Amino acid sequence: MLKFDDRIAVAVSGGKDSISLLHILSKSEKEYSRTSLVAITVDEGIRGYRDEALEIAAENCKKLGIEHEIITFKELYGYTLDEIMKKRSIKNLNIETPCAYCGVLRRRALNSAARKVKAGKIATAHTLDDETQTILLNIFHGDILRTAREKPITDKTDLKLVQKIKPFCTIPEKETALYAYVKKIKFQATPCPYASSAMRNDVRVILNRLEEKRPGIKFTIYKSIERIRPSLEKTEKKQDMERCCLCGEPSTEEICRVCQLLSQIV
Ligand code: SF4
Description:
Elements: E1 7-11, H1 16-28, E2 36-43, H2 50-64, E3 67-72, H3 73-77, H4 81-90, H5 98-116, E4 121-123, H6 128-140, H7 146-149, E5 163-165, H8 173-182, H9 199-213, H10 217-235, E6 242-243, E7 250-251, H11 257-265
Parallel strand pairs: 1-2, 1-4, 2-3, 4-5
Antiparallel strand pairs: 6-7
Helix pairs in contact: 1-2, 1-8, 6-9, 6-10
This protein binds iron/sulfur cluster.
C-alpha cells in the first residue's frame, strides 16, 4: 500500500481506529526518511461530539509531532452537519439518513484537504468490521457492483482524486481497540449522536452476533469478496470521470452527488 517516499494523509476522526492507525504509521514510517505524514480531521459540525474528538486528535498529533490539518463543513459547504439536518427536517426530506449526507460530504472534504497538503495517498482506518459491514450494506442496497470500486487500494481514476488506502482492512475492530488500550492511547469513546439512525448499525449487530457464534465469519465474508472482486470489476461498466458543472470536482454525472445533496437543502 505504501512506498518509501509517500506523503500520507491519515484521516483522523479521534476514535480508536484512526488514532491507533496514526500511532502505528508514525512508528513504522520513522524508518523511511523520505516519507511524511500529515493528519487530517474533518469537522462536520456535530454539537457535543466533534469538539471532543478534535481535541483528542490534536493532542495525539502534538504528542507524535505530526502536522494536523482540520477542514470544516462550514468553511467548505457553508453549513455544519447539524444545520444541514435542521434544514432537511424543515423541508421534510427524510429519505437520506444523516450518515448519507455526512459520508458524501466528508469524502469530498477529505480529498480537498489531502490535495491542499499535497498528499499522494489518504490512509483511512477502515477495519475488517467496517469492510464486512459495507459489503453487506451494498448487497442490501442492491448495489453489489459498488464493492468492485471499494478496494483496499483505490484505482487512480482522476488527477483530482487522491488515492485511498485501508491498512486496517483485515484487522478486527477489537484488535485496534486492544492496541489503543495496551498502548494507553487517548481516543474518543462517545459515539456520534446520528450513528443510531444508520442501517450500518443494524448490520454491525448482526455481524457481531454471527462472529460470536461462528468466529472467523467476518474474515470469510471479506475473503469471499476479495476472490470475486476481479469478476465484479469486469462486469462493472467503467464510467468516465467528468467535471461537475456546478463545482468543477470529478463526477460521473453532470452534477456531482455533493452538489445534488446541497441543492436539496438550500
Ligand atoms: Fe457522520 Fe454518521 Fe459517522 Fe456521525 S456516524 S460522523 S453522521 S457518518
